[in-house]
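Quick check before the chapter quiz. The format below is the same one you will see on the exam, so make sure you can read both the input and the output lines.
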Amino acid sequence: MPAVDSRTPDGLWYSELSELLEPLLISDKATGLQITILDPDLDPSGYYTKEFVKRICETINSVK
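Here is the expected output.
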């Protein structure tokens, strides 16, 4: 994703991110989520930021 401060060529796909997050979100020990790398200033059109927000919301809503 180009809208991050530290790009990694072989980073996570959204499906892999969801696979990692779902068990954490289901856990009673999860109390919050902090997103620290997404930088909307690096995404002037908002394309990547909107897709990221959509995917994170889908993951969170899937475990309710």
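If your answer matched, good. Helices lie at 14-26, 47-62.
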